[in-house]
Amino acid sequence: MKHVDQILHADWIIPIEPDAGSLSDHCIVIDGERIVEVIPSKLAPDRFTADNEFKLKEHVLIPGLINCHTHGAMTLFRGLADDIPLQTWLEEHIWPAEARCVDRNFVHDGTLLGAAEMLRSGTTCFNDMYFFPDEAAAAAIEAGIRAVVGMIIIGFPSAWAGNNDEYLHNGQRVHDHYRSHPLIDTAFAPHAPYTVDDETLRRVAILAEELDVPIQMHIHETAREVNQEVADRGRRPLSRLADLGLMSHRLMAVHMTALTSHEITDVAMAGVSVVHCPESNLKLASGFCPLAKLLGAGINVALGTDGAASNNDLDMFSEMRTAALLAKGVAEDACAAPAEQILRMATFGGAKALGMENELGSLAKGKLADIVAVDLGGFSAAPIYNPISQIVYAGHRDQVSNVWVGGRRVLADGQLTNIDTVALKRTTNRWRDRIAER
Known about the structure:
The protein is α/β, with parallel strands linked by helices. The chain is 39% helix and 24% strand. β7, α5 and β8 form a beta-alpha-beta unit.
């Protein structure tokens, strides 16, 4: 008999991989930061003893949700500028507010606020793009959440860097500092084709290979962006990125609302992952990502919320439901993007996009124990015929009761274990008062 740290029993377990469905009356055995076994609960007493054993009646265990595109610090801008188009939102509201307010403290405090919201709603890993990624990493470590922090590059000076060389240098310094940290990974994060020049993008493609890291980028976010690129350069952004060496399995193409059938084929052949942010796209009227066509072409698709300034939350349960319903409406096909596929996008799809599918995204032996317990005992979840459908179509973040990241319980019976939420609210209110001073 083997002694382990924890055993989690639940009425249902949805492993994602290798089993596509749900398992009844099973348990997850955890030792240290990893999953040892997923077995029927009745077999556990004969094989394991544990320091802690959780019997989660009327619960389902799922892999930790992976929010594959965020601007965590911008949670402090939640509600600042609503009901306006993307370019107006950026140029007349968000960029001026950033110029006034963004510094190291802003990024740390805003990311901590976002991390608290994400953990409380079942997200165990987020892929971030913002200034001062070292501060975002520090906030993630403080919260106990896993993060991929973006080595951002944008074609104008900011508080983080004055030019492209500084952006690249500062980003690589962050990569070197956190290269061995158990919670932090890095990705290159050029903002968009229209804000980063060709030479810098070529360097990003080369450096990503050398450092073995992914690349995230806003691409084809709106038809206007694509049309402007055609007017300025005589070609569409994806064609330009292909010539610059960025179209590969390393690329996470975020948004992707304006695509031709040929571009979908090219993306599939290159092994590019698409990060779908349906609620932000809807709120900013950016367009509709052709999810059913992407999935039909065999493209790996992950889900992201985008920032809380344009969503206005970081709720992956809401994002799953919106993605599923929107896909059916756009495709005019009720069979498009079924619940199993949507939940896979929010877990394993995100892990694959980040190049972390061997560690995250499913509940399988040997993987990191990033696990979410969802309480389906309330009347709003009854009756239960299929727990996967229940999570995608009727689930909500308030049902999340417990969260483990690398075997550590970071949400215990609805309470965050690493974050002083009273102090965080006070800090947030101080930022609100400062940001509101225009």
